[in-house]
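I hope you will forgive my troubling you with a question about protein structure. The full record is reproduced below for your convenience:

——
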Amino acid sequence: MQKIIHWYYKALELIVVLALAAMCVMVFGNVVLRHFFDSGINTSEELSRFMFIWLTFLGAIVAMREGGHLGVDMVVRRLSGKTQFAAVLLAQLIVLLCCAVLLWGLMRQHSLNVANTGMVTGISLSVVYSVAYLCAASIGILTLANIVKLLTGRISPASLIPTTNSD
C-alpha cells in the first residue's frame, strides 16, 4: 500500500512539472508570436489558464503531504502535553472540515460547471475543476490518516506542526 501511495504522489509531482513546463512554453510562445508576428494562439492562452488551475490544486496536495503549507506555529510550539495535542488535533479537524466544505461546494456547483465551457477550446469546465475533487479528497484522506495516527499515538503532535526556519 505504501508503494502505491508513493507512486501516487510521484505521479502528481510529474503532472505538476509537466503542466508548469507546458504553461511556460505556451505563454512564452504567445509572447514571441504577439511581439514579432502580431498574432497569437488563443487556445494556448486558455489551456495555460486551465493548467494553472490544475497546477495549483495538485501542488496543494503535494505540499500537504510534505507539510509545506503555511501554518502558525508560534503558539503551538510553546504548548506542551495535552494542550499541544488538543491544538494540533483541532487544527487537523479544521482542515478536514475545510475539505468537506470544499467537496460540498463542488457538488453544488457541478451542474453549472458541466453547462459552461471554455470560450476558445470548448472544454467543459467540469473537466477543468474536476481536479478540485481530487484535491479535497486527497487532502481529506491525508488529514483523516493524520488524525487516526495522532489519536492512536503512532505520531506525536510535534510532527504535525509546520516547521519554520526562523527559530
